[in-house]
Amino acid sequence: xxxxxxxxxxxxxxxxxxxxxxLEEENRLLRETxxxxxxxxxxxxxxxxxxxxxxxxxxxxxxxxLPNSNEFLVSISSxxxxxxxxxxxxxxxxNLTIIKKIPSSKHFTVESFVIIEKPIVSWSDIGxxxxxxxxxxxxxxxxxxxxxxxxKVGITPPKGILLHGPPGTGKTLLAKAVAASTNSTFxxxxxxxxxxxxxxxxxxxxxxxxxxxxEKAPAIIFIDELDALAAKRIEIGTSGEREVxxxxxxxxxxxxxFKPLANVKVIGATNRKDILDPAVxxxxxxxxxxxxxxPDEEGKKxxxxxxxxxxxxxxxINVDQLIKKMENFSGAEIKAxxxxxxxxxxxxxRTKILKDDFLKAIxxxxxxxxxxxxxxxxMFG
Length: 381
Fold this sequence. Notes:
Oligomer: single chain
CATH topology of the largest domain: Rossmann fold
CATH architecture of the largest domain: 3-Layer(aba) Sandwich
């Protein structure tokens, strides 16, 4: 065979060989892709597993609690490993057999659920509540800053206090101010969200909130809308009502579980003290009740001055006349008036706030309050 033809033949054979190797590699990749897709398809066909909590272990069986609070006696898979009460597990939806244990976060959504901050609110930011400030300083601030004083005198300070009164009167501000004055971590919980969002987990969440407070001590646990959690107990009916009761009982147990001179204090706030369960305000719990009323004339003037201290006011403004027009206004509404007056000035392209700005702001806040009152009556009247 001539050398030239042999060279051409070698090139053709090499080309086919290279193409064959490339095809084999491509086929291998395709087979791997098909196998992976089959595995994913098999996963999609599997029914989802349910997350439950182990309540009690009985030899090779266990009592589990479902997210809806129902409880069942179920079998434990041989591959599951050792379990103990309180563990979080995955169970088969059909027969509820425990498949495997899963790690549960130490703080189970606590830090993403509560508001944790170091407030910068000072006592000077609060107007018209001198008596309430004095009481809170005595029963919350002193035990946190000078516990040895109470030990020497031989008296036990309250573990917590209850702030009650109309909405917008400064209950949250008081709690933040005492946290700032004692350099405490401020942990804020809205009780209505606790019982609505965490059916099946409320009691566990309460326990971990108090544990979080101990770790971040000194700390103030502030529970707003306490009546949503601690209303008078009625005959238990639905699973939701049972869950609220379990959460409430855990809350009482946590208060009972720490010492009066510990560096964690509980402050509850409510607009409806009349519907609270007596158990939460009995001696040894939130037994110091502090009423936070609507401000009187002098209180309104103090609040007005606090919220206008950084504003440029026209010298012709008669503060006393404005205060008289704000009859039955809460501190929050007085703050709203100052903010709205500032907006009226901005709309007029002014930096100085005039009397007319405040008058229009007062009327606007009154109208908004009237509309809210009508909505309330339609819902609950």
